């Protein structure tokens, strides 16, 4: 998947930056496993703490206070913020609960929000993954790569490539 995403970004002459929370840099790691990824991947920030989301990505403290770190609003703010910080074509924000702790009844383990921001606006997707911590992180990274691929082709995740 990362090879296809990289080729798509390269073909469309698009650049990418990521703000990763619950995936801990896994998406970036997968992308940098591909030779030549520096031609489209500008960088990423693992913003695991709220303070890093606020200070490094530019997420408004009130968004986190009002909606929580794991929310659609925070994911979108992360995508917008990382895109602005790195001045890229596309920004991706990922926030969620990989578990086993940190869950509530409203926000269970496996809940992940993936957001993307680019020239055609932003999109956010809510996922509920099942599995242990590493499985949730991998599934979230796979879904994020799929989201990027769809976005590059001008589609939402509900549309086929």
UniProtKB/TrEMBL annotation:
Pfam families: CinA. Residues 2-151 form the CinA C-terminal domain. Gene3D superfamilies: CinA-like. NCBIfam families: PncC_domain. This is CinA-like protein. It comes from bioreactor metagenome. The lineage of its organism: unclassified sequences, metagenomes, ecological metagenomes.
